[in-house]
UniProtKB/TrEMBL annotation:
It comes from Haloferax marinum. This is Helix-turn-helix domain-containing protein. InterPro entries: WH-like_DNA-bd_sf (IPR036388), WH_DNA-bd_sf (IPR036390). Residues 1-20 are annotated as: Disordered.
Amino acid sequence: MNSSTTLTANGTLGFDSRQQNTAEPAAVLSALNDDDSRRILAVCEDQPRTAQECADLCDIPLSSVYRKLEQLSDASLLDEGRRIQPDAHHPREFSTQFDSLSLSFDAGVSVNFRQVATDGGEETKGR
């Protein structure tokens, strides 16, 4: 998807949002216009979630969750990683990598993400 992942020492895949592609404002606005997509973002805020966890927590059909996760990832609103488990199945998991999102309509539309924990509260322009 839009971000790279790294394997950490504890055997879980982590997210590296520094490699995240630029967000297209139209894609962000389209994704945020959907109630179910906003609910999925909310449950992925505290910890990474699999598609099944999103479906269960949001009470949304799994087939719809997959479409919405793709849309949210394409809009750079979610980062994707892999959950390493003892069995052979390592499901994809999704996480938000920003604390706040702002839209600006000054000269066209621009999207700004803010990552307080990782960038000291500096806004990342033009995503």
